[in-house]
Amino acid sequence: MATTAPTGSPPSPPSLTHPPPPRKLTSVKALSESPGLSSIPSIYTFPEQPNHEPVSDTKEPIPTIDFSLLISSNPDERSKTIRELGKACRDWGFFMVTNHGVPERMMKAMIEVCREFFELTEEEKGESEGKHVLDPIRYGTSFNPSLDKILYWRDYLKIFQHPAFHSPSNPPSFSAIALEYSKRTRGVMKEIVRGISESLGLEDKYIEKASSLENCLQIMVANLYPPCPQPELAMGLAAHTDHGLLTLLIQNDTVGLQVLHKDKWVNIHPIPNSFLVNIGDHIDILSNGKYKSVLHRAVVNDRDVRISIALAHGPAADVAVNPAPMLLEDGQNPLAYPAIKYKEYVELQQSSKLDGKSYLEHIRNRGI
After folding, report:
1. Which runs of E-coded beta strand occur in the chain?
2. TM segments (predicted)?
3. Run of H or E residues at 179
4. DSSP state letter for 69
5. Residue 45 — pLDDT band, cuts 50, 70, 90?
6. Angle at the Cα of 201 (from 200 to 203), degrees rounded to 5?
7. Are 215 and 163 in contact (CB under 8 A)?
8. What value does the CA radius of gyration of the chain take, rounded to a whole number of Å?
9. How far apart are CA 70 and CA 62, in angstroms?
10. How far apart are the C-alpha atoms of 351 and 353, rounded to whole Å?
11. Which residue from 28, 109, 174, 263 lies 20 to 30 Å from 161 (Cα-Cα)?
12. Across residues 266-273, what is the average pLDDT?
């Protein structure tokens, strides 16, 4: 049984045409805890062995944005930080955000309550099992088991947090913790979006208004990556980009996220009490490709559980997002993407199998 907490916000996005429900599968957590498990079933084995690709622990550090300077009343400090933010979007598409004002205890509580959810019995977690890709609460495994020929070493819980707030009923403390956390992170997200808007040479609230950010579709995705006896054969999640504007991610202290930077996979090491932020496909669209969403993936290990919690923030569900006209005026930057309603884009991505940036390429190729 799941609960919905009224917030006075607009209702959930309208229902869409949904693909058939995925086949019933055992969770990866249950599989990983099987007595004597020394090898993984063939359904989890990737023949290309993507974990054998070269990985770089680059000496070029991932950019760090000091949030307190981004919202500073000192115009020089703020302008300098906005320039740094624009460079981070151009060069990496990923950056750490420090001094963001969300209490560390709240971030730790969010990770812990998600851990408690995954520790529930299979029957209890099954109460949150969704049937369709846009159900507001959906527990499952892999990415899209109805299409995945090879399954990912991952269990997940996806919950719509805004414009209507949803929560599983178990653990009992989940709702209160997630509600406060989702509110605080939306505030951080809005300020970063304003900074990105200015860094593009747009009015500070251009992206906010163009995407109806007050009614943004905010989706929490909690991921569990259990220890894997053959991590070199499995994948936590294949290379992909995110569908929204910005994703804010926290995780426990286990390394597992890799970002494609300068054609090399780079391990991202967690920084305590910080958000890892990446731009999504809809910043790519709004900027007409000036700021590109970047491929990233999750790998697994044979020792430690990795938990990550991503809050994906997109435009309002019914908003059709297209490139900012002001970025096309010089004639040097032809229109790259047609307008598409955000809910249609999310459904397209979530109903497909992971295949790099194919969702963005799909709409690019639909014609202008």
Report:
1. 2-5, 55-56, 64-66, 94-98, 137-141, 155-162, 165-168, 217-225, 237-240, 246-251, 257-261, 264-267, 275-279, 296-298, 306-314, 320-321, 340-341
2. none
3. helix 174-199
4. H
5. very high
6. 105
7. yes
8. 20
9. 18
10. 7
11. 28
12. 92
Joined together, the tokens standing for residue 106 give: 């709240």
Could you give the 3-state DSSP secondary structure of residue 301?
Answer: coil
In 3D space, the residue among 97, 37, 34 whose CA is nearest the CA of residue 63 turns out to be 97
- Listing DSSP states for 204-231 in one string gives TTHHHHHTTGGG-EEEEEEEEE---S-T
Of the ranges 90-94, 263-267, 358-362, which one carries the lowest mean pLDDT score?
A: 358-362
- Per residue in 330-364, pLDDT (tens digit) is 667 788 888 889 998 998 888 777 777 777 877 77
d(CA 253, CA 308): 10
* Contact criterion met (CB below 8 Å) for 138 and 168: no
Token pair for residue 367?
Answer: 């014609």
Q: Which residues does residue 321 pair with via DSSP β-bridges, in sequence order? A: 340
DSSP state letters, 255-284: --EEEEETTEEEE----TT-EEEEE-HHHH
Distance CA 340, CA 325 (A): 15
In contact, 137 and 174? CB cutoff 8 Å: no
Residue 326 to residues 159, 197, 291: CA-CA distances in angstroms? 35, 12, 15
The token duo for 272 is 């305590």
Return the closest-CA partner of residue 137 out of 155, 161, 118. 161
Average pLDDT of span 292-321: 96
- pLDDT tens across 238-253, in order? 999 999 999 999 999 9
Write the DSSP symbol of residue 123.
H
The whole-model pTM stands at: 0.89
Beta bridge partners of 159: 137, 220
Whether 184 has a pLDDT exceeding 60, the answer reads: yes
Q: Is the pLDDT of residue 254 over 50?
A: yes
**Sheet-wide strand order for 155-162:** 64-66, 94-98, 275-279, 246-251, 306-314, 217-225, 155-162, 137-141
